[in-house]
Amino acid sequence: xxxxxxxxxxxxxxxxxxxxxxxxxxxxxxxxxxxxxxxxxxxxxxxxxxxxxxxxxxxxxxxxxxxxxxxxxxxxxxxxxxxxxxxxxxxxxxxxxxxxxxxxxxxxxxxxxxxxxxxxxxxxxxxxxxxxxxxxxxxxxxxxxxxxxxxxxxxxxxxxxxxxxxxxxxxxxxxxxxxxxxxxxxxxxxxxxxxxxxxxxxxxxxxxxxxxxxxxxxxxxxxxxxxxxxxxxxxxxxxxxxxxxxxxxxxxxxxxxxxxxxxxxxxxxxxxxxxxxxxxxxxxxxxxxxxxxxxxxxxxxxxxxxxxxxxxxxxxxxxxxxxxxxxxxxxxxxxxxxxxxxxxxxxxxxxxxxxxxxxxxxxxxxxxx
Length: 369
What we know:
Number of domains: 3
Radius of gyration: 20 Å
Strand order of the largest sheet: 12-18-16-17-14-13-19
Mean pLDDT: 86
Helix content: 10-25%
Oligomer: single chain
Low-confidence stretches: 316-369
Largest sheet: 7 strands, mixed, barrel
Order of helices and strands: EEHEEEEEEEEEEHEEEEEEHEHEEE
């Protein structure tokens, strides 16, 4: 089945959850900036969570459907419509042959995700380092390593598509909301000891604005500078999604999916995983406050967010068996009850290829320490 791109929109790319396991050779994880929304879109149409889908930014594309298809649109509300009729987000949608999908622009949030039942034909896009995600700076992955252009065609595996009657009851219990002012929950570190109490109070007590020069590499904030006790940098070390750097200017930069794999600016705190979706949807001009939580609370909130996806899954596997939580910065291994067995393992100390958020029966772990 073919979908024709009549207009690419502001910035539309093919993404999955990214290239996990290649930061040691300088390749960013990349992938969808809002991975929760991408995974939800895929589940709503019966795909695997990591299937490639479209990530659209600000103004979405205009797409012509050559055959009937089931789609789902998640993430920020960019006011989608089919042939001029408004659509709901976060639900499966039956689209008829000859219909045109378009977007009027953001009502809330910055990015939306479009998944197609059956998935984008993986033979029609580029697999690089176990990911179909588009890395524009590197010019690889997705559709020849670039954003969509007018006249492009997307091929969908219609033979793998699920019937609408089998999908129409699917919905997310509580879709996330994206507001122009938000609170991002954080845990301190890894370099918070380099900052004075006054500097940390400045960080947590002030309201910051998202700067215009923010992107999928980093969100730059404007507001009250955070003063350094000494210098602003350390020996370069690994970076994580949500790490908050404080460069020499004192104005925070929150690192995102296409960040560099290492960095030497001091990192005062890290946004918890459960708030990554809110972080990914911040627009220039939005307001941000930071709120400290414990590591235990961060894990609890991550588990709660994962459970939101269970109604969309064919099999519930959020901590129902021994499982791992794998991010690009740490790995946590839990048992059947969710109790933590091994915690805060650095990527360098784990010898394993891990499927993100999937249940596994066994993992080989080699502790280098």
